[in-house]
Design goal:
Layout lengths: L2 H18 L3 E2 L34 E8 L18 E10 L3 H15 L7 E6 L3 H7 L5 E4 L7 E3 L5 E12 L3 E13 L4 E8 H8 L10 H6 L7 H15 L11 H20 L4 H15 L6 H15 L3 H9 L6
Parallel strand pairs: 1-2, 4-5
Antiparallel strand pairs: 2-3, 3-9, 4-7, 6-7, 7-8, 8-9
């Protein structure tokens, strides 16, 4: 089974599971959230729930495509840890009256739908959260952390709303562990409390199949895995993010999208640099972008505009002094 089929299967399974339990499936948040300047892009499955966080939230569930970026990347650092900004999340939320239901449904889905062995699943929780420990210790193997506290705290860009919770981890492979997802108790200053559960789909696939890297669990990896070498993941991650961005028909030249445009520009530069270093022709980029868009996004990205912008960057990249220097250094290697 291809990765995109696995992602779809898990996504559909999650939504069906919660809908059968009485949860309403809501639309995912748009790429650029409306009336929310606290984030550049929808970066978590909590985003479509934010308008409910100061209410007694009804039973809701969602599947969300996410973009999450971090700064400080050096385009030429081959030792940088592989990172993929584009990924899929699923989540559910309801109010505190249904806390026991949250525990029972989460346990049921993780153990019986995802088929995670009980001895492979545990959750870390802060010793400063006795209520959370009491509510969930019956259902999960809780590891109480007496030192850390910030790791179990969340902010949502809303004044008076904050979260605390537990973080699930999964044992896999040869004594490896990885973080899977969270149950978050979301409190607001108007005395409303809700509980959300969510996890990243590709992250689960990575652990369940004992893969070495996150990107090996993505849809773009299946399409571009013929490209090998330490820069391959950067091509995959940048191109998949650009396909999603260009599929939304957003005018990133609009001044109101100035911050987002800087990220788009950086991604275009990365694809241009890597494709030049690895001798990836535009025809290959075209084929990869088209296939990823169809299997992952279920629609055709504006490939013509994407290729035009990548090609323009490739032209300027060839004259970049830093690029020329690193290209000479790498000339004896295959990338």
């Amino acid at each position: 089974m291809e990765n995109y089929e696995k992602i779809k299967e898990i996504r559909d399974s999650f939504l069906s599971f919660y809908m059968m339990a009485g949860y309403k499936c809501v639309d995912p948040a748009p790429l650029i959230p409306e009336n929310d300047d606290t984030i550049y892009f929808s970066n978590s499955a909590i985003v479509p729930f934010k308008k409910y966080l100061q209410t007694d939230c009804p039973r809701l569930t969602v599947a969300q495509k996410c973009l999450r970026f971090r700064g400080g990347k050096n385009l030429y650092d081959l030792n940088e840890h592989p990172y993929v900004p584009y990924f899929n999340m699923v989540a559910s939320i309801t109010n505190a009256k249904h806390c026991q239901e949250v525990a029972e449904l989460t346990q049921d889905f993780l153990l019986n739908s995802l088929n995670i062995p009980e001895n492979k699943l545990y959750a870390d929780v802060s010793s400063q959260d006795p209520v959370i420990i009491k509510n969930f210790e019956k259902y999960f193997d809780l590891h109480v952390d007496k030192l850390e506290q910030d790791e179990y705290r969340w902010g949502f860009g809303i004044n008076g709303v904050h979260g605390r919770g537990l973080c699930f981890s999964m044992r896999y492979g040869d004594n490896k562990t990885g973080d899977l997802g969270q149950i978050i108790q979301i409190n607001s200053d108007n005395n409303k409390t809700n509980y959300a559960f969510g996890f990243g789909i590709e992250k689960f696939i990575k652990m369940s199949e004992n893969l070495d890297h996150f990107y090996e669990a993505t849809s773009i990896y299946e399409i571009t895995k013929d490209i090998q070498g330490p820069l391959a993941w950067r091509y995959m991650s940048s191109l998949s993010s650009l396909c999603y961005l260009y599929s939304q028909n957003i005018d990133f030249e609009d001044p109101k999208h100035k911050k987002q445009n800087k990220i788009v520009s950086s991604l275009l530069h990365q694809v241009a640099v890597v494709s030049e270093l690895m001798d990836i022709p535009l025809s290959k980029i075209n084929a990869d972008a088209y296939k990823f868009s169809m299997v992952e996004l279920n629609k055709k990205t504006n490939v013509d505009a994407l290729l035009r912008d990548i090609n323009n960057r490739k032209q300027t990249t060839r004259h970049d002094k830093e690029f020329q220097q690193i290209s000479r250094q790498l000339s004896s290697k295959t990338y």
